[in-house]
Amino acid sequence: MSSKPKPSSTKKHIAPDSSPFWETTALGDMSEAQWESLCDGCGKCCLNKFIDDDEGDLQPTAEIKQNEQVHFTNIVCDLLNTKSCSCSQYERRTEFVPDCIKLTKDNLDDIFFMPNSCSYRRLHEGRGLPSWHPLLNRNKKTAMHQAGMSVRGKTVYEAMVDMTEFEDYIALWPLADLD
Ligand code: SF4
Ligand code: SF4
């Protein structure tokens, strides 16, 4: 006796998308909580930066033109806790440091100020998050510090520096990125 062949199922079992939000959501579409959680807390954006213009002059600036280059220094804002690499006055920071610029969805044009390793810049440029990012390390900064990607142990406070001699403090390490 022959048995009837079972009809094949046309249903497909699709696994729920387990991709992390930063791989599925554009920066501009992220919630406030998602946006905030992307920050690795490296502290590099709290370093003093200058623009090298066409004439070779180094000037503080709020914009960058073609052929100009951002130079980082190891001079850090006096409000940064250089051990945790977190702002010691985050909620009131603009009261104390009026030119503290926080990157938001509305000022992504300012992203050129951010170091190559900045999470927002990486995602903006389609480079994803690196393996040392806190979001991939149980929200701990340890891997980032160990990879040398934060400012810990590399800075000097503004208050300790004669800012007319900032060229002596230009540093290459903030430009480094891993992964
Ligand atoms: S450089 Fe970018 S990722 Fe690092 S602390 Fe600043 S905003 Fe956050
Ligand atoms: S005020 Fe805080 S967030 Fe702003 S540059 Fe200084 S340490 Fe960084």
> For the largest beta sheet, what order do the strands appear in spatially?
2-1-3-6
Small-molecule binders here are: iron/sulfur cluster
State the secondary-structure class.
alpha+beta
Q: Helical region count? A: 5
**Helix-residue proportion:** 10-25%
Mean residue pLDDT:
88
End-to-end CA span:
63 Å
How many DSSP E strands? 6
Proportion of strand residues: 5-15%
Compute the number of structural domains: 1
Taking Cα atoms only, what radius of gyration do you get, to the nearest Å? 22 Å
Low-confidence stretches: none
Shape: globular
Tell me the series of helices and strands, N- to C-terminal. Answer: HHEEEEEHHHE
Query: Biggest sheet, open or closed, and with what strands and sense?
Result: 4 strands, mixed
Word description of this protein:
By secondary structure, this protein is of the alpha+beta class. The protein has one domain. Helix content is 15%, strand content 12%. The protein contains 5 helices and 6 strands. The protein has helices at 21-24, 32-38, 93-96, 119-124, 142-146, and strands at residues 47-52, 58-59, 69-76, 80-81, 86-87, 156-157. The strands form 2 sheets. It has a 4-stranded mixed beta sheet with strand order 2-1-3-6, with no helix packed on it. A two-stranded antiparallel ribbon has the order 4-5. One iron/sulfur cluster binds next to helix 4.
